[in-house]
Amino acid sequence: MIAGQLRQGYYQASGTVLLRKEASRGGRSLLLFLRGFGPLWAGAPSAGGKNRFGGGAEPMVWGSFSLYQSPSRLYLQSVDVKEDFLQLRGSPAALACAARLYRLTADEAPSGCENDGLLRALWSAAVQLRAGALPAAVEFRYMWKLLAVMGTAPSLGYCAGCGEKLARGGLFTDEGILCGRCAAQAKGAHLSERELLALRAAASLPHDKFVEWASKCAGEEIFAANIKKLSSYFRNLL
Ligand SMILES: [Zn+2]
Asked: Is the pTM higher than 0.70?
């Protein structure tokens, strides 16, 4: 965040800690993702060499953050922890998935502007992982939503070439998913109808239905392959 972007004063907002960096002179810098503000960096000064925020200054914690903007810097004053998602530590796959989603958000979400839709999607992803949804399906869903927020998510329903409905699978290229007719000369990964249906379900089912479906669904390899494909869409943004 650009120093001085906020007016000097006190702020309170709910959200989560995306990243933690140890600062050179004790204390920490935290990348917070806050409702109404989006991602922003805040200093979390230590008190006598101790972290005075306890577990509240850790990534994946959700809570209400009290902040102070000085003329030069934004500081964290206190955290009222609402949810720490400690249960995720019981599943290495779920925890690793959550860590990747946090890293992706820290790297890709534009700072300096609110992004409440994405913040809700990140919260939902953590809840879905805790509820036992297949991590690869949660990861695909969240990545697709993050790309959708930026307006660059590939359509899972219509051909990127001609706009026809993708009724029988398609070819996943760097410019979108193409139907059989448009795919003739293109390079990409073939998607069967079954695979495309799974991706569509992951991206578009409402939260509760998604949790129910993704707790029972197989097809981890489908999601793993297409998570890789979606990653190239982030590179397209550079
Ligand atoms: Zn087409």
From this structure: yes
